[in-house]
Structure formats: structure tokens, C-alpha cells
Amino acid sequence: MSKKALVDDMIERSTVDLTKKQAKAALDALIEAMQWELTHGNEVALPGIGKFKVKMVAPRKARNLQTGEAITVAGHRAAKFAASQTLKLALAG
Fold first, then answer.
1. SS3 content of the chain, % helix, strand, coil (to 5)
2. Confidence of residue 93 (pLDDT cuts 50, 70, 90)
3. Which SS3 state, helix, strand or coil, does residue 73 take?
4. Among 27, 57, 52, 56, residue whose Cα is nearest residue 38
5. Number of H-type helices and E-type strands within the chain
6. 80: domain CATH number?
7. What is the number of other CB atoms lying within 10 angstroms of the CB of residue 7?
8. Which helix (H) or strand (E) holds 87?
9. What kind and span of H or E run contains 12?
């Protein structure tokens, strides 16, 4: 689903009258807040959907497929998502 489609869906499902501009601003604010929290190492929980958190990925050995040379991939932070039980049940049903 694209961002435009998500904004349109938000307007359609909303219990209050939202303009397209208001819905887009709300979605942009949510995305910005989530990015800020995750970049500062905080967890973001969305009830009924799941949790976003930052995990450290350890350095690892890899191989350059073109040359066959062994390389080391540096450790880094990565965003991880864990679905809530509610979402898991909704997807299964």
C-alpha cells in the first residue's frame, strides 16, 4: 500500500471528518515521531499492531561474490518489528 493509498484509507475509515491534508499531516507526524524514537534507541509500541525496536547486528564475515575475497561486514543498528498477538490472530483467521 502506498502512502497516498494509506492516507485515502485513513480518511475513509476515520470516525471524524478529516481532509486529505490533515490525514497526510497526521501520518507524516507519526512517521517522524517513530523515526526520532528509533534513532534514539527507544522502542515504539503500537497496540494491536506490534512493536518496533532497534537491535544491534553483530559484525560478520562475508564473501564478495564477484572476487571470492573474504570481507568483514561491520556491525550496525537495524530496526526490527515484532507483530502483536492481535495482529497474528487477525492474519491467521
1. 40, 30, 30
2. confident
3. strand
4. 52
5. 3, 5
6. 4.10.520.10
7. 20
8. helix 85-92
9. helix 3-13
CA distances from 75 to 20, 38, 56, 59, 81 (A): 41, 17, 7, 4, 19
**Axis crossing angle, helix 20-39 with helix 3-13, rounded to the nearest 10:** 120
Torsion of CA 92, 8, 25, 81, to 10 degrees: 20
Do 37 and 48 belong together in one domain? no
- Over the stretch 44-64, which tens digit does the pLDDT of each residue have? 999 999 999 999 999 999 999
Q: Which amino acid is at 77?
A: R
How does pLDDT run across 10-45, given as a tens digit for each residue? Answer: 999 999 999 999 999 999 999 999 999 999 999 999
91 and 66 part of one domain? yes
**CA distances for 81 relative to 38, 44, 61, 65, angstroms:** 11, 10, 25, 29
